[in-house]
Design brief:
The chain is α/β, with parallel strands linked by helices. It has 2 domains: 233 residues, 3-Layer(aba) Sandwich (Aspartate Aminotransferase, domain 2); 135 residues, Alpha-Beta Complex (Aspartate Aminotransferase, domain 1). It is 37% helix and 15% strand. Strands 1-7-6-5-4-2-3 form a 7-stranded mixed beta sheet, sandwiched between helices. Strands 8-9-12-11-10 form a 5-stranded mixed beta sheet, covered by helices on one side. The structure holds pyridoxal-5'-phosphate. The site of pyridoxal-5'-phosphate has 14 residues, from loops.
Length: 396
């Protein structure tokens, strides 16, 4: 029998997802890793305690369960190390705290996940970091915004809610020429459809809450670093005392086993719904990177291996922007789609998007933006539900 690493080296994505992270024969042959609940770890003697050579020393510093998940993520990301944090938002804030200090300047994409902007505008500001938002379409033009004290460039592609693409390679190359750390929120694509570190990114962040969890019941974030940035990231993690819980880590690793199949289904269904919407009356625009009509489509096609299941569309509604009665009627008429935040689970969701905090990528003028997370339901049922929404909107 070949050893596991040789077996996995040339294997396909789903084979790797099925076998990464845990070697059953390292734990009595059980297929899944043990869930280790731990604070205290015992040492056989004082000398071992002082030597700091024992693999596990305390619950906050990792267990066989968290290690199994981190090893799987490292294999998918091609990273030197991964830390686990209690939410996707913490997967952004912890590395920002690791790499930014008072007096530094950070460049953040304007189409960023909105709670990240809140962190920047409140806590980072209070800590003496200045933040500037940039146009996702900037590409190599990022150079004009870099100052002597710029330390970090944060990217997210596609952007939250409006799905703008970014030329990650061009931005990374310029940022590195000026000594900046490049971070990327890669939650939308997962490492299956985009591998940030292969495009020059130093730190890849994920809300594992989304596709790795897949069932709308776990909150977790992962942050993966290349070799040059791993030590500093790991140090910040230990200093802050932020770590992943054992049961959650186990569930995320469990979710990874089926993530390839789920993503494939999300991708196909979402594209079918997006194409259907594009041809429909009442729709001004569909914001989905895999549609040839979408402005960032060429970048998506060049750099990404797939599209996941979340996108938006602009309802053609000539109505007062403040009250959005047609959009409200549309959403209230849905029954398969639930009204709720987050995404990546098996069930479809719809929300009205608020873009009021944007300074560059402002809200479309044609009407309200509705974001759809396409779950694993049958597409005809989803289309029938959306038809009910359009009928309700048209009746206003
Ligand atoms: C949901 C989300 C997060 C935050 O994840 P939570 O686990 O909900 O905190 C971060 N980034 C993006 C792009 C997200 O969509």
């Amino acid at each position: 029998m070949k050893d596991r690493e040789t077996m996995l080296a040339g294997a396909g994505t789903n084979t790797r997802l099925c076998h990464l992270g845990h070697d059953p024969f390292a734990y009595h042959g059980f297929v899944n890793p043990p869930v280790v609940h731990a604070s205290t770890v015992l040492f056989p003697d004082v000398e071992t305690m002082e030597s700091r050579r024992q693999k596990y020393t305390y619950g906050t510093r990792g267990t066989p369960t968290t290690d199994a998940l981190c090893a799987a993520i490292d294999a998918l990301e091609g990273s030197a190390g991964t830390i686990l944090v209690p939410s996707g938002l913490a997967a952004i804030t912890v590395p920002f705290l690791a790499f930014l200090s008072a007096g530094d300047h950070a460049l953040i994409v304007d189409s960023v996940y909105s709670p990240c902007r809140n962190f920047c505008d409140t806590m980072l500001k209070r800590l003496g970091v200045t933040v500037e938002y940039y146009d996702p379409a900037i590409g190599a033009g990022i150079e004009t915004l870099i100052k002597p004290n710029t330390k970090l460039v944060h990217t997210e592609a596609p952007g939250s809610n409006t799905f703008e693409m970014q030329d990650i390679r061009a931005i990374s190359d310029i940022a590195h020429r000026h000594g900046c750390v490049v971070t990327m929120d890669n939650t939308w694509a997962t490492p299956l459809y985009f591998k940030p570190l292969d495009f020059g990114v130093d730190i890849s962040m994920h809300a594992a809450t989304k596709y790795p969890s897949g069932h709308s019941d776990i909150l977790m974030g992962t942050v993966s670093a290349n070799a040059a940035h791993w030590e500093k990231l790991s140090e910040a993690n230990i200093t802050l005392g932020i770590c992943g819980a054992p049961d959650d880590s186990y569930q995320i690793l469990r979710g990874l086993r089926t993530m390839g199949l789920r993503l494939d289904a999300h991708q196909k269904a979402a594209l079918a719904v997006a194409e259907w919407l594009e041809g429909r009356d009442g729709v001004a625009r569909v914001l989905h990177p895999a549609l040839p009509s979408f402005p960032g489509h060429d970048i998506w096609k060049r750099d990404f291996k797939g599209a996941s299941g979340i996108f938006s569309f602009v309802l053609a509604a000539d109505e007062p922007a403040k009250f959005k009665p047609k959009a409200r009627a549309f959403l209230n008429a849905l029954s398969v789609f639930g009204l709720g935040y987050s995404w990546g689970g098996y069930e479809s969701l719809a929300v009205m998007v608020n873009l009021d905090d944007r300074t560059i990528c402002k809200a479309p003028s044609e009407g309200p933006v509705i974001r759809l997370q396409i779950g694993l339901e049958d597409v005809p049922d989803l289309l029938a539900d959306l038809e009910a929404g359009f009928a309700a909107a048209a009746a206003i």
